[in-house]
Design goal:
Elements: H1 2-20, H2 33-39, H3 42-47, H4 52-57, H5 59-71, H6 75-87, H7 93-108, H8 120-129, H9 139-159, H10 161-174
Helix pairs in contact: 6-7, 6-9
Length: 175
């Protein structure tokens, strides 16, 4: 048993060490991180601190926030929010129910593989909404998850090594 615990500690140590070193932004920035870093201005990265929605609306801000959530093992919140944003763009009535069911089973249902943290009332309202799926059937759940990320994860992201290192990289380029 002790041997297995040591192995687990070693693996967890590697994980926590890896999540702390962000001089290499290949894990954070999509497609060609070096070019992305050159394009990302300090002003843009600083603006992410203005509001959570500014962060979510910026391609690289979203990527950095996703990387941060992965280090906290809570990326399902962002993935659910993004799935809802995509779902709202569904124009085909035929695809609507199937897409809604997929989102519900992946994120909302009890014991879902990537279950988001929402209260019982919201989960039940969403379950009832699934009887006749519409573009707004996830609105309340999505709002709760957005609020949770904004109040909890977003402030921690702004203090994280990921964000501060990214800002340093953009500022270093200017000097």
């Amino acid at each position: 048993i002790d041997h297995r615990n040591r192995g687990m500690r070693t693996r967890l140590g590697c994980l926590s060490h890896k999540s702390d070193s962000y001089n290499d932004f290949t894990a954070i920035l999509p497609d060609k991180p070096n070019r992305a870093l050159k394009r990302l201005s300090t002003e843009e990265a600083t603006r992410w601190a203005d509001s959570f929605d500014v962060l979510l609306s910026h391609k690289y801000g979203l990527a950095a926030f996703r990387a941060f959530l992965k280090t906290e093992f809570s990326e399902e919140n962002l993935e659910f929010w993004l799935a809802c944003e995509d779902f709202k763009k569904t124009r085909s009535a035929a695809k609507l129910a199937a897409k809604a069911q997929r989102i519900f089973e992946e994120f909302i249902d009890v014991q879902a593989p990537r279950e988001v943290n929402i209260d019982f009332q919201t989960r039940e309202l969403t379950r009832r909404n699934m009887q006749e799926p519409s573009l707004s059937c996830f609105d309340q759940a999505q709002g709760k998850v957005h609020s949770l990320m904004e109040k909890d994860s977003y402030p921690r992201f702004l203090r994280s090594k990921i964000y501060t290192d990214l800002l340093s990289q953009t500022q270093r380029r200017l000097s």
